Amino acid sequence: MRAWRVHELGDPSTVMKLEEVERPTPGDGQVLVKVRAAALNFFDGLMIQGRYQERPPLPFTPGSELCGEIVGTGQRVIGAPSGGPGAFAEYALMDAAGAWPVPERMSDEKAASLYLTYQTGHVGLHRRAHLQPGEWLLVHAGAGGVGSAAIQLGKAAGARVIATAGGPHKVEVCRELGADHVVDYTSEDFVPVVKEVTGGHGADVIYDPVGGDVFDRSRKCIAFEGRLVVVGFTSGRIPEAPANHALVKNYSVVGLHWGLYRTKEPALIATVHQELVKLVEDGLVDPMISETFPLEQAPQALAQLADRGTVGKVVLVP
Question: Could you tell me which residue ranges the Enoyl reductase (ER) domain spans (predicted)?
């Protein structure tokens, strides 16, 4: 079978090699799946460069979420490859206990995109931030894969959603996703807009996958007893939260590492998947696919994602 392999860390365009490798053999508690679609995430590129907090041993096959067909049964499932990355290939192993059924009538591409970002968004907004109906939710980078999921999940929860996005096209995408207000951060500061839109109340929950200056500015428009959810650092800078500021304004900075629940509380993943399937069936959640690439063009797909020129999710199809 064909699989992308990383033998040394560096730029994906130079260190990724499409190779012929042996089809993996499932062990106890595993299933072999034919990959039907693999969704890309921003951290895939960071992992290949060695800049992510998780560093799989070399060589490895990138890709952390997929829709696959179980060999021998034909059942479509979504989830992560066993033991870490491995989705950018024609076949992959999955833990049987973590291979979740695909909602009926959902395409392979959208199914592959329902796992990481939507699980993360659901756990972040509900388990970590306890988002309530009617509250103000501020979603940064709303047109991206992480942000687009958070907008939909926030609206499904009954929140009033403010999104930030870069440029007119991405602003329109956020509106189409259901955001009540959208701020184009390339032309205006989101802080005064959030204060004005909320009548001086501020954002009750802030969903921040960007970090850096965005995190720093978010602390200026968070509500009393607000929750600032730290999702990631796509800006490249890990910010610091002054404890005195959190005390004076009475807000919480909440960390979100969804992957830990796979070992700390795996039952939560099953519960969230069931809730996501219901949201899909009710028409409240619909993953947005920016572009689909053939497996051979994985480096180009990662480059496009890294350039932030995409909206929603980017997917590989073997």
Answer: 10-316
